[in-house]
UniProtKB/TrEMBL annotation:
Its main location: membrane. It is a multi-pass membrane protein. Keywords: Membrane, Transmembrane, Transmembrane helix. Residues 10-133 form the Methylamine utilisation protein MauE domain. This is MauE/DoxX family redox-associated membrane protein. It is found in: Membrane.
């Protein structure tokens, strides 16, 4: 394989692992209990402007699409992630500008209702999804197992930082 193909292959795998971990945490945090899902459904209702059955259907569709990102085949996982992340980013941006912003419940817990950190996280994830899509089309295979495990471990570290971004920034700024 040529160097550009190898780079594309490893980039696609790293991006896939990153998105899989972030979306897996998101799904698990929403479906861990009936209460957690109800809180997410309520937040999704406010963020999307839908009510009743539409809000419930939207919440279920979001969780289903997030599961698809975790287990689906490339390059489709990247396309689904892009659509979800664009929708989430638009909803978060509108929410931040509203008179009564609500917590997004992106990862189940009551996160900051507004601010730039969720938008920053989404920008990083959008970049990963776009890069992964392009690279998976250029190099549609997998790296050797040992290399894949190293990439997956790195993706877990980055995903942990992204999932806990508000907490990490809060800790860092509290010490300054």
């Amino acid at each position: 394989m040529t160097a550009p193909i190898v780079i594309a292959l490893y980039t696609a795998w790293a991006c896939r692992c990153l998105l899989a971990v972030v979306f897996a945490v998101s799904v698990l945090s929403k479906v861990r209990s009936a209460t957690a899902f109800a809180e997410f459904r309520t937040a999704a209702s406010v963020l999307s402007g839908s009510t009743g059955r539409r809000a419930a259907a939207a919440a279920i569709a979001v969780v289903g699409a997030e599961i698809a990102v975790v287990v689906g085949p490339a390059p489709w996982v990247f396309a689904v992630a892009l659509v979800l992340l664009v929708a989430f980013t638009v909803a978060l941006h509108r929410n931040g500008r509203s008179a009564a912003p609500v917590a997004c419940r992106c990862f189940g817990s009551a996160e900051a209702a507004t601010g730039n950190l969720p938008l920053l996280r989404n920008a990083v994830l959008l970049s990963a999804a776009a890069a992964g899509l392009g690279c998976s089309l250029a190099a549609p295979s997998r790296p050797p197992v040992a290399d894949a495990l190293v990439l997956a471990a790195g993706a877990v570290v980055v995903a942990t930082g992204l999932v806990r971004l508000e907490h990490v920034v809060g800790r860092l700024t509290a010490r300054i």
